[in-house]
Design a protein that fits this description.
globular, TIM Barrel, about 35% helix, 8-stranded parallel sheet
Length: about 375
Amino acid sequence: MGVRLFHSETTDKTIELQHMKRRQFLGQTLLAGAGTLAATTTAPVLAAPFSPLPLTKALPPEPDAAQKHWMNLRFGMFIHFGINTFYDEEWSQGQHAPQGFNPTHLDTDQWCATAKKAGMKYVVLVTKHHDGFCNWPTAYTDYSVKSSPYQGDVVAEVVKSARKYGLEVGLYYSLWDCHEKTHNADEPAYVEFMINQITELLTNYGPIVEFWLDGMWKKQSTGWTDALGKRAPVETFMQAWRNEGAYRWQIDRIYQLVKKLQPNCLVMNNATTEYPGVPLHPVDGRSGEKATKVVVDQKHWTFAAKERYLPLQIETTMSRKGHKGKFNSGSWFWHEGDTTAPTVAQVREWLDIAAKMEANLLLNVGPMTNGQLRPEDVAVLGKLGS
């Protein structure tokens, strides 16, 4: 049975007034929620001004997983060994016969055992220096170990020894090649030559933690000095790199190849001792050749409209003596008669500097012609870990 509503004139007015108040309340509620005007039976009610929360500045990007892994390695061994070792050179022009390369007692286990004892966690081997001689039997030139009496594969031996001693492996590759004719005669063809060689290195030797490029200056003639002949500002140098060097080397293509073949491999490109720590984009880390002083180091850099954290690696060498006017602060390759070496305290100071800079230290050794480390290097590095 339905409920019958009884009402009088007074009751009707009361109900109408209640309906009006309800409509006003709903109109105000809609305005506050949606920021629009709502019609009511009285004057329209405007919403209160929108007050967003105060904007906070975005935090700078952190290192990605691959960078964090590499940063945790902290200390590594750089190994300069090649055709120069056998011809008493620091830099040669690709003129030396590969028959001179003959390490009769190559002992990569000794190299890696010494690195392990010193507290190092990775090694970076020179696979090809500026002379163009290749430490692996590449299919793309005869100027390699396959044309030497050695008839082996130095890259493979180092990789095997490194993994035996629990070390990770990085590779150095010189963009500049004094022996390969296409380097000067046909730049596109030379880029294909590099692409093929880099593909060999990054597919035949397992995981590679670092790919260190060098020699970029041979195809960048601008951006080094200003109008007064003084060192150009960093911004000028970097822009010249992108406009000239990166274009001629097709460095973007090389970077993309490395990341395709080994996504977790950090790419570095040496900006020389003139611009230590300056990134030659695109890269995943920065090189500070012989930058063994504590300085303010910029960690965040922007490229391709994206800000990234780029860790630093400081490279220096055990030798404290130059050779034939080259690198008076210390040679990279072995030279007979050079028995100079840092003290244990000096190496520890370099490690302390690297720690303060939040950088890795990559300390170079130059194995002798017999394929073993200098006794001076073994002695210092052996005491370092004790």
